[in-house]
Write a structure and sequence with these properties.
mainly alpha; 2 domains; 3-stranded antiparallel β-sheet; 7 helices; 5 strands
């Protein structure tokens, strides 16, 4: 399978409006034409300075009579996937991060319960839900997670970005792991917690004191005074021993 880039859009912030103002319309139009059309790989005979040569050509058409066609007819496929924000924007949906499941009409927390079954979304159903939202001024959960009308037609294969699904499972595993840890770990007392939190600041203060000491030692008479203090310290230490 060959993958080709349609466009490179440079932006500072990831926002659906950027898609609407750049590549969204021609991209969706092209995907619809591919998913509903047919490709004809054919050969045209023509003269090129007397000799007859074969010229290969490819044409995307809405329909073709395969029995009468002199070329090879192929049904092309259109696939949609990508970053979760891009994925939701193209389909006109929202709330994928927790409230709505992307493929069916399941609402949190029902879609997380084993055994629950919901109707799957189709492009026509998404458009119908959007019209219902507008006509009846539906809000919140009654909107079924449909934010806008998608221009994508049935026929494009939608591939959910699995990484985001795994992140959700991973978050639950991490939460379970930490809950299990809490059962076997003694809680830290408040004074001990404050002591640990003060370590970084204490290290900063210690470094400042070291710097100040070095400055005093490097002064013109700082070293002499320090030497006198050391001699006096040794004398007192000898008297006490």
């Amino acid at each position: 399978m060959d993958i080709y880039s349609l466009a490179d859009v440079g932006c500072k912030n990831d926002h659906g409006g950027i898609l609407d103002e750049t590549v969204m319309k021609p991209m969706i139009q092209g995907m619809n034409e591919i998913s509903s059309g047919k490709l004809i790989f054919g050969v045209t005979l023509h003269e090129d300075r007397k000799p007859v040569v074969n010229e290969y050509h490819t044409e995307l058409v809405e329909d073709v009579n395969e029995c009468n066609s002199t070329g090879v007819v192929v049904n092309p496929g259109s696939h949609l996937t990508g970053d979760l924000a891009f994925f939701a924007h193209v389909l006109g949906q929202e709330g994928f991060e927790g409230w709505w499941y992307n493929f069916c009409k399941g609402y949190h927390p029902n879609w997380q319960v084993k055994g629950f079954k919901f109707d799957t979304w189709m492009m026509a159903a998404l458009k119908a839900q959007h019209e219902l939202n507008l006509n009846k001024q539906l809000t919140e959960a009654n909107r079924m997670g449909v934010k806008s009308a998608t221009e994508l037609k049935d026929g494009t294969i939608v591939i959910f970005p699995e990484l985001h699904g795994l992140l959700g499972i991973g978050n639950q595993l991490v939460k379970y792991f930490f809950n299990r840890m809490d059962l076997h770990i003694w809680s830290i007392q408040k004074d001990e917690q404050l002591l640990w939190e003060s370590i970084p600041q204490n290290e900063v203060l210690l470094e400042e004191e070291r710097t100040n000491k070095q400055i005093r030692v490097n002064l013109e008479d700082g070293g002499k005074k320090l030497k006198v203090q050391k001699i006096e310290f040794k004398r007192l230490k000898k008297l006490l021993s």
